[in-house]
Amino acid sequence: MSFDRELLSSVLPAYDIGDELGAGGWGVVVAGQHRQLDRRVAIKQLPSELSADPAVRRRFTAEARVLASLDHPHVVPVYDFVERDGVCLLVMELLPGGTLRSLAAGGAGLTDRKAVALSLACASGLSAAHRRGILHRDVKPENMLFAASGVLKVTDFGIAKVIGGADTVMTRIGDVLGTPAYIAPEQVLGGELSAATDVYGLATMLYELLAGVFPFSHDGPAVALLFKHAHEAPKPLRDVVPHVPDEVAEVVMRGLATDPAQRFQTAESFGAALAQAGTEAWHPGWLWAEKVPILDAESIVNAAGYSAAPRRSVAPPTILPGAMTRGAIPESPPPATVSSETDEPADSTQTLLSVPKARVSIPPQAQVSIPPQVRDPAAGRRRIVVAAVVVAVIVIAIIAILVLPGLFKVYHS
CA-CA distance, 122 to 140, in Å (whole number)? Predict the structure, then answer.
């Protein structure tokens, strides 16, 4: 689908319209810039053959209003939307850091730990949307984009629902809603969708990042792949990549359960279980070491072995009582505890992991008891001298107060 620059300029008069950033079956994305705000944006326009449908336009307006109110650091913000004269478009934050797909394809050090850490960022964004009753329905690496700061953000929420409605896996023209490689069994069968539907897509995505292949082979037609998702069990992850820790593989495979009731019911619970699996397989604080920002996801960060990261420096090692005299410092500090009483959010540019409205308090075992000072004769003599000087000053002051008035009387005489 190509875009009409004049048309976009007419419906978005406050913006300069740039070049095309990408296109697909569900529309075209164009760069733009708000003149007065000097803010760069991405403009996503639905295909004209879809936006001509009144039902699509109604769903688009309803979903766009909800998405525009969704505010989370791992969800792309929607600044504006237009539904007018057969045009449906969203104005969103421009994310210039590329997609998770491009990162994986580039092979730029995407280790198992990094893949799990990035999936936790996705889980945080999905969890925020689920709490607002918003399902994604098409979780895949192409819909995970990086901001200039390096923060991973989930995009294209609700587009599948806008185009195809709530109860069908096919559009009116026969296209599959959602990418067949990531689609959940209940989507294929027309069943009830829930947060567990997005968990399936996220688990499929992580399976692919870890193994380099999909849970189901898709060398045939899309319909055959849909049948496998609906009626077959995926190949165990450890059978494909034995080096993946058992704990991590177990969480991924549970996320891929054919029956939605057997999966994690929320993206948050999936993320927390995955973070805990990483902690058991690797070490407490492993997520921090990966330098992947995980924001507004306290349960996930806690499960990774640290409640919160410090602002500018590495967490100090715990010193046990008496360690100063023995010279013993433990090799790995226990996690700090979190208090939710502070009103200052963590700064994502200064921390690797942050939990808004959280304050780090030092655990009891990290507090050092200082032994009392040893008394010595010299210190006692110094205190006596100081006391004598103080008394002498007080006596002189009293005499001065009593004698000076008499001297003034003699002087006046």
Answer: 10
